[in-house]
């Protein structure tokens, strides 16, 4: 794999692992959850609008704006608000571990929404193992504390929202350039949250730490991470690029422990291991189109075409559903 691809992989693994830290910093400083979500969406939307306009891909969303609205609500406005709400009550580490269960949620939804992807055999075993991890986490580290249960429940609901995205991208939004989809979704998400954000503005001017956190969430974790992920997919293909799913939660937990001084209980450690193992099994012991082949081939160089534009054409890319 090229140095450019390795650099993008490392960067996105970090950028999709750090949101929980900065969300925690923002809400602990007193910023309302909806204001945090709205701010990062506005910042990200402004940046991506400029990129999508330059690429000339926004026209692809004509006639599908209602699906862009749906994606903006389920993948951004709602979960981006629920996660800060949850992090007012639970640690960033616990939040990241719960968000890592998104592939399990996708597998559960597939039972109803996509018969071809129904869990059987090893995939069913993966669901059981992964959900056991969620139970272990909730039952050991959170049980008996109503505020933490409320926070963890909000994060799990956000994870369920994330899991809806892949079915929309494979259906009504199939074939649309991903940057076009996400840009339109961010705009709709920001517009949807505007009345709520204005109704619950911060009581005081945000501190330097909180303000910097919002900028990092919007610029780095939303806009920059998406563009870098698109470049990575163009370099190595979606199957290898999505290995990030298994790296970013570990980055998030490491930051929570080292930067915020959070401690991991027995339930958190057991939950993380079981959720990651269950997610791996629930995707047929692979990361589509193959974890084993992806890892074996990861260092062999690009298999996808080089994009002819400054920003790659990523119409076949799929955005990871575990982005906080």
From TrEMBL:
Q: Which UniProt keywords apply?
A: Membrane, Transmembrane, Transmembrane helix
Topology within the bilayer: Multi-pass membrane protein
- The residues that cross the membrane are 5-23, 35-53, 65-86, 92-111, 123-143, 149-167, 179-198, 210-234, 241-260, 266-283
Keyword field contains Iron: no
Localisation? Membrane
Q: Which InterPro entries match?
A: AA-Vitamin_Transporters, EamA_dom, EmrE-like
Question: What range(s) does the EamA domain occupy?
Answer: 9-137, 150-282
Highest taxon of source: Bacteria
GO cellular component terms listed in the entry, alphabetical order: membrane
- Pfam families in UniProt: EamA
Question: Ranges of Basic and acidic residues compositional bias?
Answer: 307-324
**Segments for region (Disordered):** 304-324
* Entry annotated with the keyword Transmembrane helix: yes
The family classification in the record reads: Belongs to the EamA transporter family.
Its protein name is EamA domain-containing protein
Annotated organism of origin: Capillimicrobium parvum
